[in-house]
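ping. complex inputs:
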Amino acid sequence: MNFNAPIIEARDLTKHFGGTRNLFTRTPTVYAVNGVSFSVQKGETFAIVGESGCGKSTLGRLLLRLIDSTEGRVIYEGKDITHLGTEPMRRLRREMQIIFQDPFASLNPGMTVGQIIGEPIALHGLAKGAALRQRVSDLLHTVGLQPGYAERYPHEFSGGQRQRIGIARALAGEPKLIVGDEPVSALDVSVQAQVINLLESLKQKLGLTLIMIAHDLAVIRHMSDRVAVMYLGEIVEMADVDDLFDQPLHPYTQALLQAIPASSPRQRRSKPSLTGDLPSPTAPPSGCRFHPRCPHARARCSDEQPVSETLENGHRVACHFWREIQNAGGGAPLVSIVSPKLTERLAVYRQRQAQVDGTIKEQSNKR
Amino acid sequence: MLNLSTLSKLPLNEPDRQPDRHDQVNPAARHPVLEVSGFSLKFSRAAHVPNLVEDVSFSVNAGETLCIVGESGCGKSVTSLALMGLLPSPPANIVSGKAIFDGRDLFTLGERELADIRGNRMSMIFQEPMTSLNPAFTVGHQIAECVQRHRGLSGAAARKEALDMLRLVRIPAPQTRLDAYPHELSGGMRQRVMIAMALANRPQLVIADEPTTALDVTIQAQVLLLVRSLQAETGTAMVLITHDLGVVAEVADYVAVMYAGRIVEYGSVDEIFDDPQHPYTIGLMGAIPSVGKREGALATIRGSVPSPEQMPKGCRFAPRCPFVEQRCIDAVPPDKQLGGTHRVACWIAPVEHALSGAVA
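pong. complex structure:
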C-alpha cells in the first residue's frame, strides 16, 4: 500500500487524570496514557488494541481533542492542534469524527433520525431546507437504511441499525478521519459482520482514514493495515497487521494472540497465556510495565524501562529481550482451522446470497 | 458421585493439567442430569401470540457441557432463567414442556422447593459479576451464606468452606480476599467469586449465562480453563449460554444452536464445527472474522432477528435465509436426524444440494 502523508500524528502524548487535592486528601493519579507517539497515514486503517484500562479510548479522545492532553502534541495535517482555540477546533471537527461503542447511549432519544444526522450538516452550514433533507436521505441510503427512516426515533431501531445511524451521523460533515471506539463490539456476530463490511466499503468509496479502537483481535486482523498494541498506557508494539499477527515480538502481544479462543475444538488450549490481572494504572509497575505478568521477565525488566526499537520493516517493539524471546520460539503464528465442509458450504452460501441480492436489485430497478 | 471429601482434596494449582474432553468422565457416570423436552414459553396468555421459545429439547449429562449458542433475542437467556425458576409468572407463561432434574419436573415445583434446589443442587453464574454480587457484603460472607443456607453449617465452618472455595478457584491470597468487598476485586476476580459461590454446594448442574463475555480476552482464557478443569474434577454438568463460537470451541461437549426461540441445529462440538448443516450456523461461522490471513469481505446474514410480534409462521430463519423456498415459508421444518447426536431443523440442508435449484 502506498501512503503519502500522515493525516494525524501523536507526539509523546500523555494524559493523567486525578491527582487533585481537596481539603484533606489527594486523589490518586491515574496514568492513563504515557508518552505515546505514532502517525497515521492518509487512507490507512490504524488499529489500537489492548485490554480494558489500557488507555486506548483515552488515546482516541486525545487525538480528537475531546479531552486535552497533560503533555505532548497532536498534529493534524501538519498543523499542531494541541492548543487550537474553541472556534477553529469546532470547524475542524467536521473533518474528524467519532463512532461510539454503544449505539443505545450515543443517539439522543428525543431527536428523530433525520434531526440527528442533519444536525452536523446544519451546524457546519453545509446545506439547508430541501437540500439538507436530500443529504440526510442520501446518507441513510449510503449506510444501507431506507430514506423514510428519517422521521423515526432511535428507539424504533435495532442495535445494528442504530450503529448505522451513528455512522451516517459521523459521515454527515464529510469527514476525512473517523475514530471508531469499539464500533462493532456491542453488536451480534451477524450484525457485526454487516457493519464491518459497511465501514470497509465506505472507507474505500469516500477515501476515509480510520482509527479503530478495539479489543477484538480477529476484527482488527480483518480490518486494519497497521496495529498498535497498548498495555497500561504505553504502546508496546506497533507493526503492519500481517507482521504483527504472523510474528508478534512483544511477549504481551504474543500472550494476547494466544488468548484468542480457538477457531475449532481441535485447538483447545491447556494453559492460560497470561496469569494475573492488569495492574492498577494509579500505581504502574516500575521498569517495563508488563514485567509482573511477563513469563520472560528478568531483573533488568523491573529496573529499567525498555526503549522502543524500530526494525527495518517499520516494526516497533519495546522490550529488552525481544530477540532472545523470538529465538526461543515465542511468537508462533496463529492458524485458524476451518473444516472442509464449512469451507464448501460457505462458498455455496455466499454464491446463493449473491444470486438473491442480484434478483432483489433487478426487481427494485424495474420498479 | 459428588461428595465433600473429593472436592476438598482437589489439587489446587495444576495449570498444566489438560482434561481430555471425552475421557474425563467415568462412563458409568454418563447419565442425564437435566432433560428438557418440548419446552415452549411466551410472555403472554393470549393464544394468538407466538411462542418466544418454541419446542426446545435437550439434555445434559454429568460432567459434560452443553453450549447453547445464539444471538441476542434468540431465547437462550430466557430458557436458562425459566429452568432456574427465575421468571416471574405472569407475564412468563410456560406453554408446554418438562424439565426433569433429579427425578422432578422443575416447571411444576413451588417457590419453596425451587429455593431449596437453587444455589444447592443447581446453581447459576451470571454475565455481570458486579451486579450479581451484593456490594454491601464481603465476598467471604456471600459464599458462606449460601453454604449455611443449604447445609446448615456453623459460621466458622462456613467461613472455612468459603476459604476453600476461594482456593479452589485459584484466587491469589484467599485469606485476605475473604474480607474484601466486591468493588475491591477486578472483573476476573469477581467472576471467580461467582464461580466459587456457584460451586460451593457441589451442584449437579451449573447454568452459566455468558460467564466470560464481560471479561478481557486474557482473563476470559483463564476463566474458561478454570471452569473446564473444575468441571472435570467435580463431574458437574453445565449448560453454558454464549454468543461466542470461540468459547463454544473451547469448552463445549455438545452444542445447541438457537435462532429466534428454536434449536435449529444440535450435535457434538465436533459435529457442529466439522459439518455445520443449518444455513444459520453456516452464516454465523462465516460472519466471524478469522485470525488467519484476511480473505475478502465477511459473509453476512442479511436483515435482523424477527421481533416476537412478527415471528414467521414456517421456519423462523426463512426471511434471512439465502436458500429460502416456498415450503420454508409455509411450514416449520422437522428435525432431521443425521447420525450420531447431530440433528438439524431445515428443509434444505445440506445446502450444497440446493445450489442447482432456481432462486425462489
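Chain B is about 30% helix and 20% strand.
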